[in-house]
Design brief:
transmembrane helix, peptidoglycan synthesis, Beta-lactam/transpept, 21 strands, Penicillin-binding_protein_2, alpha+beta, 18% strand, hydrolase
Amino acid sequence: MRRSPKETEVSTRRITRRGLLLGGAQAAVVAVLAARMRKMQLEDAKQYRLLAEGNSVKIRLIPPARGLIFDRNGVMLAGNEQNYRVTITREDTDDVDATLDALRRLIPITDGDTKDILHDIRRRPPTTPVTVADRLTWDEFSRVAVNGPSLPGVSPDVGLSRLYPRREDFGHVIGYVGPVSDYDLSKMEDPDPLLLIPKFQLGKTGIEAKEESVLRGAAGQRRVEVNSAGREMRELSREPGQPGENLQLTLDYRLQNYALQRLEEESAATVVMDVTNGDVLACASAPSFDPNLFVRGISVADYQRLTQDDHRPLADKTVQGLYPPGSTYKMVTALAALEAGLVTPEETIWCPGYVEIAGRRFHCWKGAGHGHVNMTKSMEQSCDVYYYELSQRVGIDKMSDMAKRLGIGVRPDLPMSAVKEGVAPTKDWKRERYGKDWLIGDTANAAIGQGYVLASPMHLAIMAARIASGKKVEPRLIRARDGVEQPIRVTDDLGVEKVYLDSVRKGMTAVVNSSRGTARGSRIAMKEWKMAGKTGTSQVRNITKAERARGVIRNEQLPWNRRDHALFVAFAPIDNPRYAVSVVVEHGSGGSTAAAPIARDVLLFALAGGLPPDDAYPSFARAKAKELNETLDLVDPDTVQKPQSRSRA
């Protein structure tokens, strides 16, 4: 059927309108695309260029050099050594198992190592490099580097690893570093990205742990170009990290070496302090351990050897060991009574060998008694009854207050692991701790450093330094940070009258230098170096009434771990005190026989700046001292290099 002219005209207009609409829509789409292309090519070009580069440019963290640790003379105690290692990045390799198989043909990797590596790879983000092997030889490292094109995601790397050149000498004080563990990370809210790198070394104990934040430094980074297989093609840029701070300690490496050897095979500790400024010159705990064993992860055999030793080589007895101070505490009781005006130095007290207190008999160490004793004689011969009597006059609270002023029962502010507070007990302390009332007998026991009283060798050294100087000497272990001297913390006068301190010093002088002094056998012969001190012997077992009746068993007849602890504190020279020392020998039986000779020898080494001349010893002790000194393997200062501090970025 043919359309009429009018119908044809209408249809033509309809087609023309549809075409115009379609053409307009097409033009609008083209315009939008053109505008978008213009924006992408001109305005957003930089952003898309960076996104494109992200497919071929990777950011790698650069671990900083860990800060070095030196002794007071500039001798390195903790340093860094070059370490050849190989890492793998999961994101940059298609087949981790195949890559590891290829690596095993080039360098020694055990099945156990492979299992650990795969475990680390699964736990870490795909962009984090995982250490496959470290401490490689140059030949092993070179083989990996040469075969790099066939090992996608594998990167040969040269890093730094911790090294302790003085080995056992500073194991407890400096501590050690080790690989970061899940436990370490669990204690941190926002861990440093460096710590997520497997086998990154973190301070675990000692100064390494306490000063971790400043020793670690800050990470650097490098931008590297990689190909489609993930292999690094070239380094585009590098921003070096900030190395950690260098620390200089107050310790003297030669004195520390001597002190540790002088403790011989004992389970013991000694601390030497400069009484003029609080510098800790030696802080030795025996037996010690080699911290290098822990840097890479200690073997099961080595760890069992350390943990199963009954002398506890991993424990730092200088600050972690708490012991009844025994008769070294008598200076506390004496000063408390003098200050309270309850005794004079000349007043005598009768010692028949025991005293009755609250229906209980408290015995003196000398069964026959000491007779009439004043303060000097009571210290000289270490009469217990004298101090039992003083304790009933002065009371436990005043004794505790004096103990804390002398440093006992107060936690020393030192960057060391598990520093203990000690115990200077009071009535309230016992009630809060044990829910029991304080007894009169508790006061008598505390007067001679037994019962609830506990102190570390560090506490005892602080006490000796404060008695010697009359100042509130605070121990200092870090001498300088990056060459900046740290403040000396001798701030206040001790607040004890000089006349009272002189009375106690007179008694300590008699202990060592009088004809009946308990430590006369360990005196110093040279007048200008004479020392004052106090012996102590603390019981670790109860002596029953029946045993006392039939005769107390001698220490030599008891098993080692049932014998008394031996203690000694001292300072020298008497007229112008410079050094204070404390020695504790676990189960050493007697302070005069086990601890005093060690303290005398360590003090002499400090005073002489090395082995002292023969005439520093009494004539009867010279042959033995010479024989002992000849057996020691002392460090030779001429063979110890003092590395230059590396420059800081």
